[in-house]
Amino acid sequence: MSICWIIRAIFKAIFADRSSLVAENLALRQQLAVVQRKVKRPRLRNSDRIFWAWLSRLWKGWRSVLLIVQPETVVKWHRQGFKLYWRFKSRKRSGRPRISREIRKLIRQMSQDNPTWGVPRIKSELGLLGYEVAESTVAKYMHRQNKPPSQTWKTFLLNHADQIVAIDFFTMPSVSYRIFYVFIVLRHSDRKILHFNITRNPSAIWTAQQITEAFPFDSCPRFVLRDRDRIYGEYFRKRVKDMGIDEVLIAPRSPWQNPYVERVIGSIRRECLDHFIILGETHLCRILREYVGYYNKVRPHLSLNRNSPLPRKVEPPEKGEVIAMPYLNGLHHKYARAA
Q: CA 108, CA 112: separation in Å to the nearest integer?
C-alpha cells in the first residue's frame, strides 16, 4: 500500500466526517430557529444552566453557537453557581462563637437601666457575673441612646423619695350631714401615713400646727408636695419655710400630679369609710386610727414588694398554725402563725 493512498484515505475520512458534522449542525440550527420563532422564552432546567456554565469555561467559542439565551445570561449562571459553591464550602461556620441570647439580653438591660454607663462599665459588670465578652460585642448589642444620657424622672423621684412628703385634705359627711375635713400626711419612700387629724373648720393656723406635730424635732423632710388650695395660707407657708421645708405646688386642677396621696385617700374610702356610717368626730377619729394602724403595719403594698410600710417578717410553716386577727370589727384581717 502506497503512502499516497494512505494520506488520501485519511484526508477523505477527515473531510467526510467534517461534512457530515457541518450538515448535522445546520439541521440542528434550523430546528432551533423554528423553535425560537414559536417560543419566545423557552424554559431551561438547572442541568442546562450547569452545562452551559461549564462549557463556557472549557470552550472559547461558546458564544458563537448561542441561539436561545444571551451570553450575559450564561455569565450570570456561572456567577450564581460560584456563589452556591462557596456557600456549600462555608456551611460550617468558623471564627468567634456566637453570643448567647441571655448575654445579649443582659447587655441591653444593663444599658437601658443605667443610661450613664459606657461600654467598659458594662463589660466589667458582665465579667463580675462570669461572662467574658469583648468590648466590641458590648458596643454592638447596647441600647442606643438618641440623646445625652440622663436619669429618668422615675429614678430621680426614687432617689429623693425619702425627702418628699405629700399632704392633702378630703371630706367625710356624718349621719347628721356634718362635714368633717381629714388632713393626711404621707411619706413617698415607704407610703407610710405619718399623720392625720380631723377638723370641722380648717384654717392655715390649724394646718400649720399639723405640720409641726407630724415632724417633731429634726425629722423635717426636704420637700412637701401639695395642691393650690387657699387653706394653705400665709401663716402655713411661713411655718413651713421656718422649718426648712420647700413647698412644691402641683398645677391647678391636676390631682394626678400628686398621685400617692390621692391613691391613699381612695384606699381609705374604698376599704374603710364606704363601709361605715359616721356618727361624729370621735367615731371618725377612732375608725381612721384603727385603719391607719392596719395600713401601716399589716396591709401589703405592691410598690413595696408586697409588704407593708412597716415590713412584716415572713413566717414559715414550721412556726405553727395560721390564725386570723380582725381589724375594724372584721372588715379586714391580719394573718399570722401562732407559736
A: 6
pTM of the model: 0.58
Closest C-alpha to 273, from 168, 175, 166: 175
Kindly report, residue by residue over 200-210, the tens digit of the pLDDT. Answer: 999 999 999 99
Q: How far is CA 227 from CA 14, 39, 180, 247, 264, in A?
A: 113, 85, 19, 10, 15
Q: Are 234 and 203 in contact (CB under 8 A)?
A: no
Which CATH topology does 158-335 take?
Nucleotidyltransferase; domain 5 (3.30.420)
Rounded to whole angstroms, what are the CA distances from 221 to 166, 199, 225, 263? Answer: 10, 24, 11, 21
CB atoms < 10 A from the CB of 8, how many? 11
In the sheet that holds 179-187, the strands lie side by side as 193-199, 179-187, 164-173, 223-226, 246-249
Residues 213-270: pLDDT tens digits?
999 877 899 999 999 999 999 999 999 999 999 999 999 989 998 999 999 999 999 9
Distance CA 294, CA 182 (A): 18
